[in-house]
Design brief:
The complex is a heterodimer of chains A (about 450) and B (about 190). Chain A is about 45% helix and about 15% strand. Chain A is of the alpha/beta class. Chain A folds into 4 domains: about 130 residues, Response regulator (Rossmann fold), CATH 3.40.50.2300; about 150 residues, 3-Layer(aba) Sandwich (Rossmann fold), CATH 3.40.50; about 70 residues, Helicase, Ruva Protein, domain 3; about 40 residues, Arc Repressor Mutant, subunit A, CATH 1.10.10. The longest helix of chain A has about 30 residues. Chain B is an alpha/beta fold and about 190 residues long. In chain B, helix 1 links the parallel strand 1 and strand 2. The chains are: A alpha/beta (about 450), B alpha/beta (about 190).
Chain lengths: ~450, ~190
Amino acid sequence: MQDKMRIMVVDDEMIVRESFYHWFNKYGHDVETAASGDEALEKLEKRQFDLLFVDIKMPGMDGLELLDHVKSQYPETFVVIITAYGSIESAVTAMKSGASDYLLKPFKPDHINLVMEKIFQQKALKAEYQYLKSQVGEMTRFENIIGQSPAMTRVFDMIPEVAESDSTILLMGETGTGKELVAKAIHAKSNRANYPFIAINCGAMPESLLENELFGHIKGAFTGADKNRQGFLEIVSGGTLFLDEIGEISMRMQVDLLRVLEEKKIKRIGSNQTIDVDFRLICATSRNLDELISAGTFREDFYYRINVIQIPIPPLRERKEDIPLLIEHFLAKYSRETTKHTDRVDGEAEKILKAYDWPGNVRELENAIERAVVLSKSRTLTGRDFSFLKAPPPPESKGRSLLEMERHHIKAILEECGWNVSQAARVLGINRSTLHKKINRYELHKKEG
Amino acid sequence: MKNRKKHAVGLLAMGRVPEMALKIVSAHIYGYLNLSTCCLPALALPQECLDKKRLQYDAARIIQYLEGQSFPGCSKIIGLVEGDLFLPIFTHVFGEAQQGGTHAVISLARLQYRENGCRSPDSEFYERTAKVALHELGHLFNLFHCDDSQCLMHFSGTIETLDAIALNYCPYCRSFFTDACRRKELISLIK
């Protein structure tokens, strides 16, 4: 049984629109009509169509112009060109522009069925292609972490390697880079996958609460302790404990945790009885622990204990090539959740999203797309939908030399142009060889990820 | 109030239509669908529906014309037209019906000939007429075109494909038809 399609007939003659409308109704297709190219584009912006029948001769935007718009903005939509004034030239132009077929009015009733059959086949092939593409897309993901940049590929490569061992891991990365996702992926790939994974944000808890959460207590240990309670160090038995924002814990907690890591034993608060524990520890921080050690707020011995294997998670601004993939992922997610049909961003919006610095990293990008999808009234997110993203402040020039400022500016433009030297030279208003000399002089290097 | 006898389908000759064609269509509608029919007084083909360039009658405009007429006592109307029918986008159509509506027309003009232009024997002509009438009646009961190439609701645009279709609905379309009749309580109008 053939699928029902969403079809739009675009023709300035009402009688033709009506004929098509009634005809496709007899197949149970969902049919809409438009009297002009502009009306058709308005309708396309509101909902998705599988197939358009477009007349060439229309006042205003003609059919071939509309075909160009549709193929550039909605490439998944098939277009069949119809005309009463056929010529080889217009047929060739239409087919070159991506039309699926070209029909001369009036056509034999059987002919339209052949065209529809062909479109069904093409649609099925396209769906299969999309499926296969999504399968390839899965390869660019790792346990829900999205990215194909060299920096993320290195992280993906490390996950299965470190998962096999039981060593403590320290994940270093800014807030919102996905440290917990990496920790979960390591847990999922490890021998402990069938045991609990417990994540605790150390920065969100005062010391006493964190201690109670980790170690548990016995009845009467303190006011309000009316019964024995297991801590997460016990509950996680056999699994993985993820301590986020480890740089925020107190010196005393560091000592306690260090002892647990060395002895693999704990005592509940208020108890003298030791309990054996078995867990793998993954810590994460967005702070520079070396600086904390120098400042005397982080113990060096604890640092070496948790920093057996270090995995740096790159900030989003250093892997901007992943932004289109992430946009696609979050658009699909929020279109599904909000039941809106927003499924694309236009060139201007993509440019804004790529140019933005993303201090909040992937989490901030996700929130930005969610907000834009919720507030958008059309299928396509435009630059205006992201106007709330503030441009990063210009670098502080106070106390910096002219050379430093020049170095910073050249670096910024090179990154903006994706290290396309010719393009960057044009933006900077200097020639390529001058730019190459300055790149060497300032020792600028393209980041690998 | 006078209790007028109500029929499911009214059959109407438009132009010079053989009486036998009406009788055959009537017998098939009753035989296949158990629906009562009646033959309505013939009408002349409305000349305003003739496209003088194409020398064909506009099927949609004839249906519009029928909508303006009164056929008391009939739930559905099928007009049998002597002339050749077209829709603006098509070179010709064998018939046209309002999807889920009341009026349909079928043209006998092309049904009398084979693809090679030779005149068909009467038996072939009447069988084709019955097939097209049953197909358009299906649309009046909101049946869609069917993918089953043997089903009466399968679309055929040529005599060759029309002849290849069996004179019956597929089980799916038949069951849909029966349900539609039941919903419209036409089963009680059996002769």
